[in-house]
Amino acid sequence: MGVVLPLEDSHPKGASIEPLVKATAAGMEQVNRVIVERTGSQVTLIPEVARYLINSGGKRLRPMVTLGAALACGYRGSGDVKLAASVEFMHTATLFHDDVVDESDTRRGKRTARLVWGNQESVLVGDFLLGQAFRMMVEVGSLEALDVLSAAAATIAEGEVMQLGTAKNTETTEDEYIEVIRAKTAALFSAAAEVGPIIAGADRSVRAAFRSYGTNIGIAFQLIDDVLDYGGVSATLGKNVGDDFREGKVTLPVVLAYRRGSDEDRAFWRRSLVEGGTSDQALEHAIALLNRTRALADTVDRARHYAAMATDALAPLPNSAAKAGLLEAVGFSIRRAS
Amino acid sequence: MGVVLPLEDSHPKGASIEPLVKATAAGMEQVNRVIVERTGSQVTLIPEVARYLINSGGKRLRPMVTLGAALACGYRGSGDVKLAASVEFMHTATLFHDDVVDESDTRRGKRTARLVWGNQESVLVGDFLLGQAFRMMVEVGSLEALDVLSAAAATIAEGEVMQLGTAKNTETTEDEYIEVIRAKTAALFSAAAEVGPIIAGADRSVRAAFRSYGTNIGIAFQLIDDVLDYGGVSATLGKNVGDDFREGKVTLPVVLAYRRGSDEDRAFWRRSLVEGGTSDQALEHAIALLNRTRALADTVDRARHYAAMATDALAPLPNSAAKAGLLEAVGFSIRRAS
Does the keyword ATP-binding apply (chains A, B) (predicted)? Predict the structure, then answer.
């Protein structure tokens, strides 16, 4: 264990997700098999709907975090696979429910399940996945892991409710927004990371380190997603750009642009996000304001802060391929925006 | 109200506390008078002890924040003076109690009151000041302000208790440490700022903006204090350097240096902070490790993140001398470390 240098050095520009993919490849193959098995049901609609979203090309970063955390703690059992699959199911369940709550029409460039099959179907398949997630956790038999993941499930729901309050509220402060994503996004990353050391029987301080890693990579990840939704730092109109804008979502780039803008700018944001005046022309103007106020670049800067915290959290662990993969994933989460 | 540019531009290197001092000068004169009046008591020991610390050269930043916030919201009454004095009393009370809890021997370069008069006297004079603070708040008659300040009093105590858990625990994570100072230091700054808009009758979003300003300048301020306790970014042994180290306090610079260090480094930190091996030679080695791991420079970077949040929080308010003073105070809180 040598001296670990901070973010700037340890995450060269080429930071990639590949080392984590490689370190967890064996486990992820089993996770993917479990996912297919556990989406099976006599009710044929369920596998059809569930797999529509599950197979739509997510990176499966969360289950990789669980497997990587377990490996980095020297775990050699098989419980990590089911916990990782549970985490992915919990994530997918929230996507189903989110799309209904947000009345979203597209997700990852595809029509949302609620448009293809209906809102009720989406809600119920989400519930089915949550139920399956809990069954798998129970099978693993770790009460501590069950405690952490079920607390996360409640926190995520709280975060979604909090977001109902901030959505379309252009006066949202940065703290309020960070609280929302801490609950809505970071809580699951945090739990995904913490169950690794839990089943490995690691001590309190190692659990705290992974909890911190998960929380902070989760916040960084969400902030970069917010930037990508406007096309990245060098924002331009393009495919999949502007979903948040069209849904009236007040994300951190908007919080900053709104607060830093002129009265006229603020009237524009209210008109667009609150009253729903979101034409392509309006989106173009929004992107111009985001650039002028440096809101996108500074959101990336804010994300870097959380990324640095995630990196420092894991520093004391012994070196391993899994740890290196988890650390590079932090750099990767930021690099996506540039 | 023009476009407000982010931190780098709005806080030139010369950021100073002077604009806030000037904007609040008239009110602070009254605050200082109230402080003298309300430390009076038939029990002559009380004014003697209370004034020993109150007159020991603090900047009185917190009451200036209250006055500045009220002014920035257009307040023209006189309730802000008593609330500002309450805030300073609450702050002084916690210093008395802290010195007893931490068994500190010096504060602001002077012997602590507990050494001059005793521990029991320090605790009780702290309680007296807290009582006087609440009486003044009640006199102002704003239940909302009373609610915010009394909640802060409870949170500060919670933060102190949390700190008992992190003190001498070198495994403390950055998140855990930030939670401690969010409660111990930032909660009072947050309340100090929020009571301004409250008595000015400002709306919810303005209150949220000041709460956010206070919380984040409070965190930034504490992190820079932590750096200054090791002599600043270009750390050197000097007067008033190393108090935290000698008391075994695990502050953010130590959290980072510990996590980034080698096994040998970590053994040194445990030996020094947990077992109390804190000679001048040990302090010199500690400073060398803090520099080698860039822990001090990166703590300043972390502080900048919170400073940027504080600045953005106030951006939408109409321009005024008070607002400008509050914003420059953010830059000042950071500049102290360089």
Answer: no
